[in-house]
Amino acid sequence: MSSSAFLPALLAILLDGLATAAWAEPPAARQKELIHLVRQDCGSCHGLTLQGGLGPALLPATLAGKPVEGLVATIMGGRTGTPMPPWHRFLAEDEAQWIVDKLMAGFPE
Amino acid sequence: MKRIAQLFFAGLMVVLLSACAGASLRGTGDLGLVIERASGHVTLVNTSSRQPYARIGGLGDLSHASVVYSRDARYAFVFGRDGGLTKIDLLQGLIVKRIMQSGNAIGGSISQDGRIVVAQNYTPGGIKAFDSETLELLSEVPAEYEPGRFSKVVGLADVPGNKFAYALFDGGEIWVSDFSDPKRPVTRRFPAGLQPYDGLVTPDGRHYLAGLFGEDGIALLDLWQPEKGGRKILEKYGRGEEKLPVFKMPHLRGWSVAAGRAWLPAIGRHEVLVADATTWKETARVAVKGQPVFVMASPDGRQIWVNFAFPDNGWVQVIDTLTGKVVQTLQPGKAVLHMEFTPRGEAVWVSARDDNRVVIYDTRTFRQLGDIPVQSPSGIFFTSRAGRIGF
User: Which pTM does this prediction carry?
Assistant: First the structure.
């Protein structure tokens, strides 16, 4: 690879990384609200400890291997034929992304 | 001198005995407990003084916890989400016994004779019967509705004859298990409909109703004539209109019958459905502020108090059963999760989870009578439940 091709490629990788990070962090105060929403309101079906209830468990082990986009789409649009409602009135896409990210890593208290 | 000594000792004995009696003899009719869903604690309360009197910890995951009472109304059985079953002595304010009975539970009930406590479980799906004295396992009924397929169990309620009725969310059926022989229960199955989400037994123990999530309607079984099978009432109440999203499942219990009618939450509509409790035909519907969660009749049946799912969970509305109209709208606090009437209904206690308090209202004037601080309060359970069918 010549250096002229290498630089744009490196830039693309860096930008990609940047784009991934760009959605990642809602402001701290909002993060607190989102944690409360997930624990308390999602928790009414998925359990306060997210080990499941009427809805499935939302623990790292149960979510492992599931495509992130699919999980984000479920949060935003709900899932037809199940009690999962759409949350798009209360969440931005970025925030759903952040929630999925945190769920997959182990959700904060 | 001897006589004086005798009198002195007799007097001393009376003083000692009465002091002793004052400390140890007490009824439980005005006691209850409040679940602290996040901290694994319960707060024991007195509805006469409107004050807490004890707090007990170590009960595990109490999100969606519920409580039934022994027939002497002294012991509370707390069913935790994590499958914990804890027996609490209300008089001594301590845990008598605690077991882990399943991986994921949703509530329980107690038999007509008070000897059997039954837990309803999501994982593994089914019900389990325990000796109410010792919490020793007596028997279980796995909710295997098809070979190898187990359903989450909802709406467990005690019915006369040491039977329990419940519904299968995944199986779409109502089951009635007879525990006349507690170690060998006999189960009958009835079709219900798509995704029953909760159930109730009418206060006379005659009818079991299962609310359906997957279709508009409510499944009804006449327990006096089960051979006639189940049927559906309030069918197509949504009139084919698109449902509003349901951000929390409604809850049903035997408090839904008042003034000869059943008052039931609609699913995906901001309405309370009203059906005649003899013909089971729809008689009215009442527009309310949000998706109803609890639709609870006062003990005299004159009022229906309604709370709502997120995001309308800061409101409570009161319906007058005589006129069928909303007569009061209250804002008790942030995230109202539950309500409980005092035994004869002069007051109602309301839990406001995110305000960390329980607010007490006068049901006649709607004036606030007091409030008590409780961490993340959810369910409120008074001992008056001990004598009711279907709890």
Answer: 0.90
